[in-house]
Amino acid sequence: MDKEKQKGLIKIVEQVQAIIDEKNIQVGEKLPSERFLSETLQVGRSSIREALRALELLGVIHTRRGEGTFLSDMYQHQLFDLIGSFLIRNDSQLDEINEVKWMIEHYCEENSDIETNSKESLVTSNNNQIMYIIWKILSQYSDRFEKGTSKEG
What we know:
Arc Repressor Mutant, subunit A; about 65% helix; globular; Tscrpt_reg_HTH_GntR; DNA binding; Bact_HTH_transcr_reg; transcription regulation
């Protein structure tokens, strides 16, 4: 794919993301039709299909034949492990992930009024969505790669 076509694809993907945000589409909810996206973004349906395929490959969306396209829980996508295997190359990186995860949990313990044994409830109670997302990603990588899938370093 040449650079200009790639830039165009990325622009369409970003515009689709903006529509998802504007319409406040949540995980499991249906995206607007290809026709709507094509007309709204003023690009051909083949360009929309290409952008949707890219988003599907990334695990952002999934398509159900005859039903439409839906927003996915990307943390459950198989690419999550694949990306992690490229990011986590040795045990020291896994230790660093666990350290940052511990820092978030410790911060939440220090700044929370709730008492719970659930780390997820503790981090959620902080009402910081970005912190929760980071913690969730770190937790998933930590859980998956502590089970022996990380590379020896």
